Each structure stands twice: as C-alpha cells, then as structure tokens.
Amino acid sequence: MTQTTSFLLNRWYVAALSSEVSDTPLARTIAGQKVVLYRDSKGDIIALEDRCAHRQAPLSLGEVVGDNIQCGYHGLTFDREGTCVRVPSQKLIPPDACVRPYPAAEKQGFVHLWTGHRTPTSEETPFDFPFAAMDGLNARYAALSGKFDYRLLIDNLMDLTHLGFTHKNTIGTGGVAESGTAKTERQGDRVIVTREMENIAPAPTHVEVTGYSGNVDRWQIIEFIPPCFISLQVGNAKHGTGGFNADDKDKLINRRTLHIATPEAENTTHYFWVSTYPSDSMTPDQEQTIYDRTLEVLDEDVRMIEGQQTRYDPDFSMIDINEDAGQLSMRATLERLIAEERASAS
C-alpha cells in the first residue's frame, strides 16, 4: 500500500467508542483503510478489511453469524482471522479466499486499530489515558466527525486562544488570549504547550456550573502525542489562591480531557473525546450541564474547521504568530515521523 502524505500507518488509531461496536457490523474508514468492526459471541472486538474476497462487496452490509461475518451479497463467511470458512454455493473453498485481519484492542472506552502492515511490537501499545478508568473520577464520552484534514483539528487544540472568539458564549472569555503566558516544549516526540492566565473573568459556562462569578486564575496544559492524541489538563481557581497549585477547596474547574483526531481520509476526520472530573466535584446536574455545553463547543470547532478546510490552500502564504509555536512543533514532528516511516519502508 502506498504511504499517503499525511498519515502514519504503523500506529494504533482509535476507530470507535466501545459503545459503538456490537454484534451488528460497523463500517469505518481509518487512515484511508476501509474496515469492518464487530463483536464475537464472547464480546471480543474483531476487525477485518471491509471487502469480500469474492466480488468486493462491503462485509459491513452483511451480518454476524456466531463468531464470524457473512457477506450480504453471496453469503461467503469469514472468521476472525479473515479466512473464508464457508461458500454456500460449493463445498470447495478457494485457498486464497481471505480478507485482511487488523489487530484491534479495547481499552478505557475506546476501540483501537493497528493500521500498519507489520505486526506491532510489545512496546507499541494503544494509547493509555488512565484517568478514564480511574477510581474517583467520572468519565463522559463523545464521537463526532468533520470534513477536514485531521491536522487542522490538532492545530485548533494546540492553540486555545481561540476560546474567547469561537466559544465566547460557553468556555471562552476575555483575557484568554490577551492575558495568557505560554510556553512550548518538546519531550521526545511529544509537544507540550502550557498556558496560564491570571485574574481574568470566568467563562460563562463555568459561572453557570459553579455559581462563582469572581475573577479566576486559569490554566491549560496541552500535550500532543503522535499520531493524533491531544491530552488536556484544564481548569481554574479563585484568583490569588495559587492557580494550578491551589488547594482543592479553591479550585472551581479541574478536568483532564483527551481529544482524538483520527484521520478517516485526507480531508475527513473522526473526532473522539473523553473528559474526566473528580467524582465529588460536581452534582449530576452540574456534570450534565458542562457536558452539554462542551458538546456545543465541539460542534462550534467542527463548524469553524470545516469552513477553514473549504478555504484551505497549501500554496497560500500564511502568517504565523507567537501562539502558533505548538502547532508548528506538532506539524514538524508529524512530518519527520512520516518521512522516517516512508524511508524505512523503501
């Protein structure tokens, strides 16, 4: 398979939320590869190429029979390894009647898929976000999609100064862009942006949830982990109480969030999200409010980036500003890793 210009292949990608996969076939395209996902009789995840070996019909239009999947066109049936085990119209099964199986793993509410053509090593494991399964934390999930290059979504998340403009009625407020101090650093292939904002007005959603309308000290710690994971630690505390290092009693919002920009194709993206909160920090009503407002925020981002994609011209000479440091480091890291993977495959 030819390496695309923008995807790493020898990586684990999130292909679905665990809740999306059942004993009904689910079609997904991940990094340009068409895959069908389903659960066998034990509940294990099976992932196969979504193309019957007979006449290339989508296996996702078939049905799960026991632990196997049956093509909805002529009934050929394939097991979890992609081997054809039944041809209804004849006893002899052609020896090359098989489809590609994909390594798949279920972890912390997500279904991960290995898209490379080699087997992952023991050190190459699905992304770990322990907070999603940690005692004392509540986790809420979402799955969206967008008609844009996955890197544009990562750009968006690496620079949160857009909050005061794109999300001014929810999690944005004046001072996020104007009053913040930012630091960008690299740790191996990871890019970390730390932003701190002191003595600014709280965001409308934060006031709605906490009831506190006084000024706050706010923090955003953004970490990019290849190929497409963005881990955020965000929150605020009453102004003057220590910001990120404030006592729990003075922290108003404190959450860890994972955003996942899984490439579907060159200009379409699967957007997965999970956010965690201390279980005793909010009432169920408060938690539901911030979840609902966050979905509004995600939709606002999708709408903005889709608009950006319709205008995007790679030959256009864009300007860069100081807050682009995280984006530029992320892009440079991805370009280097893709070039290294292409070189090792040649």
For the record, the CATH class of the largest domain is Alpha Beta
Largest sheet features: 7 strands, antiparallel
Low-confidence stretches: none
Please tell me the CATH architecture of the largest domain by its name: Alpha-Beta Complex
| Beta-strand share of residues | 25-35%
- The whole-number mean of residue pLDDT values reads 94
State the secondary-structure class: alpha+beta
Inertia-based shape: elongated
| Count of domain modules | 2
Describe the secondary-structure layout.
Blueprint: E1 12-17, E2 26-30, E3 33-39, E4 45-49, E5 63-65, E6 68-70, E7 77-78, E8 84-86, E9 104-107, E10 110-114, E11 137-146, H1 150-158, H2 163-166, E12 180-187, E13 190-200, H3 204-210, E14 216-225, E15 229-238, E16 251-265, E17 268-278, H4 284-311, H5 325-345
Antiparallel strand pairs: 1-10, 2-3, 3-4, 5-6, 6-7, 7-8, 9-10, 11-17, 12-13, 13-14, 14-15, 15-16, 16-17
Helix pairs in contact: 1-5, 3-4
